[in-house]
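Render this sequence as a predicted structure.
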Amino acid sequence: MQRRFLVMVAPWVLALVVGFPLLWIEFRVITQAPQWHARESLLEESLEIMRRTLDSLQHDISFLRDLSTQIPRMDASSDSPIARLFVSFANSTETFDTVRWIDQLGNERLRVDVKDGIQTLAAQDDLHDLRNEAYFKRGMDLPPGGILFSEIALNLGRDAVEGPVQPIMRVATPFCEGEDCEGVLVINYRASRILSRLNLLAERQGLKVYLVNAAGYWLHGPTPDQSWGWQRGAPSESSMAKTHPLLWQAMQQNEGGRHQDASGDWAYRHLKLDPTTSVDRETPTPLVSELGLTVLVQGDAGLTGQARLRWEIALIGMMILVLVVALRYASHTVSSLIDEARQSRELQSANRALSEANDNLQRVQADLARAERLSSLGLMVAGVAHELNTPLGSANLSLSTLKQSIGTLRARIQSGLKRSDLDSFIDNANTAAELTQAAVIRAAGLVQRFKQVAVDRTAMERRAFDLAEVILDADPRLRKWDEGNPIGLRLELQEGLQMVSYPGPLEQAVSNLLVNALIHAFRGRETGTITLQAKADGPKHVLVRVIDDGNGIDKDHLSRIFDPFFTTSRHEGGTGLGLHIVSQLVAEVLGGTLEAENIVTPRWGTGARFTMRLPREAPMQVVAQAED
């Protein structure tokens, strides 16, 4: 009883000790999953916005470069074609701050300034010497067609940050015609536009998006003081290594991932660009990026904590409820086990008596089964003997008559043979031979039917075929039914049912059922209809039915029609083997089932239906090798 009690209580203890901690951990993961999914989805959208923006800038500067090489450039005055091109290009979008052409010596040849939506072509006296600018040097080092993206930084004027704050990213490309480079084209892109788009996207989702450069400084940080700190005179205090050291360490080790600390839950990923791209889908363009950006998405840890707290309270309540139920169950189990032990002792004696009675019953059933098998074998032998006895008896009688005729002929030869005696002998001998031949043919037919009962497998071929075609080949009459036959035929054969089975046995089964219906179904009636159906029964089986609206099957005979030698027309030459052969073929060769039933038909009110349910792929049969 103690062991049983421990077995019954163990699942409850296991649920409390192991199940609830695992469930606790799983619920914590589940409550955090939607928030992490939202952060990473926003992170991917932000990166995609930045990639599309850079791709657009790449196409813009390539477009300006290609057009500039196709017009005269000696004159860069305000009315020159090159100046009008630069002004028109700057006017095409509101995202450019400056568009300039710097010659190979570092001198500005042409500059268009954009302020408050107004494009202004800089005067010749206002052009600068930019040979010491890093973006000029890096641009001149690019191969023809190459494009440079500089880091995003605040615009500097005379070594100080210009006001108002305007983040700028410079896009540069060599200005070349053939192998000769005439300088560098530079576009100052207002990066505040992309920062605004990222902020707007984050606000809609209740999250925050930040940007950090490769040195760990905030371009757009959690606080205004941290943003652009390295250009505002507070580099050490504003770096991520100072404000978020663990997060910065994780970012150095992985290109993207998740991080949790006291400041919140973070998802981050580095912006990666393909070093070679294709502007016109044909010519590879070298791409140099100095951006070094990492996009971070921060979620409020408090929201996740609130959701987790609700689940934790619910789980604690559930655990207390399960504990109470377990204690009540344990108490009830103890009392039940005591009662069960008492009843068990009472039932043990009764069980021993029942066990002895069951052993006796099994012995009697085994004796009955053995007697039934012997009886079935005796009936089979008796049936074979009965069926062969008639033709063999006829043959024996004919041969005896022929033997007597031969004796008579021999006596007449000794006494004097007449023509009439010889003619009489020939007639008698011919009659006896015909009777003997008919008897032998009938006996051979019976032997052939007995052989079919044994299911001869030496002539079977398993192959793929169309079910409808094999059914039509089962009997020549199925393809062209005699219009004068009072029994009509209706074919309902589904097309395209492919099988891998034994077409020979299947044709024989259909033919036997058709002949059985023609012989037995319509006795006493002048008209009727036989319906032959074939249709799918699921993906792996088919149904083949032979239906008639005849007299039906006598209820007393319905359970015996598949027994060997059972027939209601023995006086008409029936052997009782036709349906038995069909049953054997369907079960042992085709691997299916055969059922017979009476049905109600609209015309006559009665009828019979034989249904074969066959697998589309018959089981493999072990074919014996025929001996010579």
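Summary. The longest strand covers residues 167-177. The CA atoms of residues 100 and 453 lie 102 Å apart.
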